[in-house]
Sequence to fold (503 residues):
Amino acid sequence: MRPPLTARSAWALLVASLVTVGASASAEPVSEPPPRIPAAELQEDLAVLKSAYEQLHPGLYRYNDKARMEAHFAALKTELGRELSLQEAYLAFSLFLAKIQCGHSYANFYNQPKAIAAALFQQPNRVPFYFRWISRRMIVTRNFSGDARLVPGSEVLSIDGTPVPAILDALLQVARADGSNDAKRVSYLEVGGHSQYEAFDLYFPMFFPRTGSRMVLRLKTPDGKPLTLETQALTYEQRVEPIQAELEARRGDGPIWEFKFLDARTGYLRMPTWSLYNSKWDWKGFLDTVFEQLATRKAAHLVIDLRGNEGGSSVGDVILGKLATKDLTLESFKRRVRYRKVPEELAPYLDTWDPSFKDWGEDAVEAGEGFYRLKKYDDVEGGTVIRASARPFKGKTWVLVDASNSSATFEFALALRQNKLGTLVGQPTGGNQRGINGGAFFFLRLPRSKIEIDLPLIGYFPSRPMPDAGLVPDISITPRARDIARGVDTELEALKKRLRASR
Fold:
């Protein structure tokens, strides 16, 4: 159940934390965004969006029937029936796109023109801490405020008087995910220093604007005591500074992953990202070395830590080949597109990295129900084949997962389970077993507001009925606030305890 290698690599290009194409797109010179956008111009933008999505989007009706989608478009038309600021327009389009329930249909942070990114995403309005959501509670994981009382493990109860549950409920309206996978939506709204732009940082000020850069936090400390403190919001530059070295490493030739032995016979491979497009690092060589070390040490266990890793390159296929004792044929998606050739009236608004996306030609074969079967790249309707290594790993494989795993890492977890090659540990994944939309993209540039909206072009549909959900791990482990306060990795420590008990 997965797209072909080349298609998946192209799809992942758009969903990785740092998007190569997005960076080049945002570098294009554009005029400054207008302070207010007239209703008539917003209606022009809506007409282009509606035409493009109805004619080109393969998953528009995966979770909404046509009547419901028409109602969503009508509601957006009403919202755009008045003059709006750029931020109000961006938020209106974002709220609409979230209703499609497609994790790859959104006003991509990385693909906006420079002027829009500066106006909307680079203001001094970040909360001065990292946090995780645990049972809908905002738990601090790292403090940047300068106030030593804001310790990890503290629970934030309200920000500027707004209760945290109300903040989460508001932002869930705009969080992107596939289908009904709300675990992904909640995970998407955490702040952990994973990328240049994180959704909470950008959407929270849009839903709850403030006039100054000070904010009031009401907290409960790890020992249960109430605490109120006033602190300074972080600037965009302050938010990015702690991860600048990591971002530079991804563009260089140094290692991005970590491998070590937890004990004499347990290897641990930490993979925070598979976004390797800008990197010159020989990651395949690194994996070769990892598995050579495992063989030399006759390791009994391999722990692969994918927490926080949304996806990127097709790293999972390489790992599967090193775990399998025989060649694997993975269940395939049916690949469908909505068009053979882009209508001429839409062409001026669509950018992409491959001109062939505008005209599939003979690679698109009529498949009924308004779809074409796509043969481009390689026709893998029967399943992708993974070649087994001559020296596969002989121990047990354990994969730490969470709700961030929603694209290439979700596919890897699914294939691992289907082929009984390892055990999933941790929390439910992102992604959706009913398939996703991606593989190829247009950057839809709205003519008046200049806002960019990602438009996925290939729909992946399972060959048999599948649940509207991600994957529930084989061993469920829930993180705990008291462990965060003590600096304990709940999931990893629980797994290590289990492995010790199994000896």
Notes: Residues 181 and 450 are 30 Å apart (CA to CA).
